[in-house]
Write a structure and sequence with these properties.
By secondary structure, the protein is an alpha/beta fold. It is about 50% helix and about 10% strand.
């Protein structure tokens, strides 16, 4: 009986992940050199980022195609973030770069209010949000602007474009995040993306979701809830399948911070309103619970060690086939030890996501 159950679980997981693999491979990078570039406003919602912000602003100044405007929304920082931003704005005003830079204070509290504050001030039809601590390549605005123009020109009702984000440095954090980005990319094949990251997420201003749809009663989730609200309202959300549009974010900075980060992500899942995202979240949770339950049965002597190896090894192999394809596209460095460690700790991560204490940033 247990062997039949394990087989059914692995077959189901193979079907689920196999669809992601198929759809990720169906994605096309649209890189016509003749394509128009959508004018963009970059919105940086930040709090206590006096060290990181100048680095990002230097990257924005070095863009091949400059944004029309940069709006920095200070979320009541307790350091010199606002002064750093204003000093940069003054420097840019005296330079040859034709980009307007605006520094404003958040009308409310938290990142969701900060992003909305920035969007309300935007002068372009499209905005792209990012974080103060990301690394943006010189091609970022050019590639995102091109992706928006190509998609919004072909399809009516495009509400957002998900830009690729990767975790810098390689290793298990980079691999794991790439897997989530791969799922986001695959789910967007018909314009019904399941998730995105506010570190690289473009919105059509007129379609930006209401405060109610953004679940402002929850401090986190400014990216996922926005994507879900748009898809549920009938708007299309696509993926920008262009590595030149990819920004890099830093690793969590230690095991404890990594665990807290994963707990925040998991806590949002119970509020998902997009059915496709709900189903995947439930399936991943059940898979992790099944693996740990099987481990407990092995320790208790109820089932054999072979059954555990088949379940864990089979699930890991299925995941690796998909994720290795995604990490190759993202150009992420990895070793066999990274994959082995991630496959071992994966079920325990699920428990952290389900039962870990959530501390919103």
């Amino acid at each position: 009986m247990i062997e039949f159950l394990i087989s059914a679980i692995l077959i189901t997981h193979a079907v689920v992940v196999g669809r992601w693999w198929r759809d990720f491979n169906r994605l096309e990078g649209r890189r016509s050199e003749d394509a128009e570039i959508e004018p963009l406003t970059v919105i940086v919602a930040c709090r206590n980022e006096e060290i990181s912000l100048p680095i990002l602003l230097n990257h924005l100044e070095a863009q091949i195609t400059s944004p029309v405007e940069i709006i920095i929304v200070d979320d009541h920082s307790e350091d010199q973030t606002q002064n750093v931003a204003r000093d940069y704005a003054a420097k840019l005003l005296n330079s040859s770069v034709r980009t307007k830079i605006t520094v404003i204070l958040n009308n409310g509290r938290g990142k969701k209010d900060a992003i909305r504050t920035g969007i309300e001030r935007a002068e372009t039809n499209w905005v792209v949000t990012t974080d103060a601590d990301v690394i943006a390549p010189p091609t970022w605005i050019l590639s995102m602007g091109r992706a928006i123009s190509e998609r919004s020109g072909d399809e009516l009702g495009v509400g957002a474009i998900i830009g690729p984000v990767k975790i810098a440095g390689g290793g298990i954090e980079s691999i794991e995040y790439a897997a989530m980005m791969g799922w986001a990319a695959a789910s967007s094949i018909k314009g019904s993306a399941a998730m995105g990251s506010a570190a690289n997420l473009a919105f059509r201003v007129e379609y930006y979701p209401s405060e109610e749809d953004m679940r402002c009663d929850i401090e986190s989730g400014d990216d996922v809830f926005a994507v879900h609200a748009l898809v549920n309202s009938g708007k299309l959300v696509f993926w920008a399948h262009d590595i030149d549009a990819c920004v890099s974010a830093n690793q969590a900075g230690g095991v404890r911070k990594w665990i807290r980060q994963r707990a925040r992500w998991g806590a949002k899942a119970k509020y998902y309103e997009l059915n496709s995202a709900k189903r995947i979240s439930i399936w991943i949770a059940l898979l992790g619970i099944t693996e740990l339950t099987t481990l407990g049965l092995v320790i208790a002597g109820v089932v054999s060690l072979k059954v555990l190896f088949v379940l864990w090894g089979g699930r890991a192999l299925i995941d690796i086939i998909f994720t290795s394809r995604v990490t190759k596209w993202f150009r992420i460095r990895s070793t066999i030890w990274d994959w082995l460690l991630l496959s071992i700790i994966y079920p325990f991560q699920i428990m952290i996501l389900l039962f870990g204490k959530t501390k919103w940033r």
